[in-house]
Amino acid sequence: MTQDNDGLDSLVRKRIRALRVAQGWSLEELATRAHVSQSTLSRIENGQRRLALDQLVTLARALGTTLDQLVENTTDDVISSPQIDSAHGLMRWPVKADPGMTVVRQRLTEPPPDSPARLRAHPGREWLVVLSGTAILLLGNRRLRVVADQAAEFPTMLPHAIGTAGGPCEIMGIFDRDARRGHQRGDEHGSRGPGREDRDRPSA
Fold it and tell me: Which terminus of the chain is less hemmed in, N or C, by CB atoms within 10 Å?
């Protein structure tokens, strides 16, 4: 066995034990759920028994994960830098584990739109946290104040927009695949609620 395979073998064993402990399960409980003997599971975790594919599949299922995640040995960089849109004070980070998700950091300086017709709705879900200042979130017929360290999460099929409450505000938002596409389509067709000058600003 190569050194790389030895490292992966050790990583998988540690991962099995860590997932079991995180669930608060004893060796006996996981062994019962995975339909293996307690002694077999103990030897697997301690490196005294060869890892068999059929047992790994069963253990992954019992631990609520997948075989791919259990044996994953990615070498991708852990640290990533944002894509910066300096014209709009916008930074974006893709989520490597889920390319459909995007993290956005935005500095807002304008209040939300004053016309309900300028609110947008599209498939998806958005989450945001206010890093500094106070944001005003328009959500359907509601007007919500979101202060620093508070978060908001909502389905984007509700008409929505976001702006500041009298001063600059900085937010961090997470967009799922549908929400991201909704914003991109709005940009492409010029139908973004708060206007063309704000086309790269997340509605929320």
Answer: N
- Beta carbons of 175 and 104 less than 8 angstroms apart: yes
Tens-place pLDDT, residues 90-136: 787 777 767 677 888 999 999 999 888 889 888 888 899 999 999 99
What is the tens place of the pLDDT at every residue in 28-74? 999 999 999 999 999 999 988 888 888 899 999 999 888 888 887 76
Strands across the sheet with 142-147, in order?
A: 142-147, 134-139, 160-164
Cα separations in angstroms, 42 against 18, 47, 56, 69, 156: 13, 9, 14, 21, 48
Is 126 in contact with 143 (CB distance < 8 Å)?
no
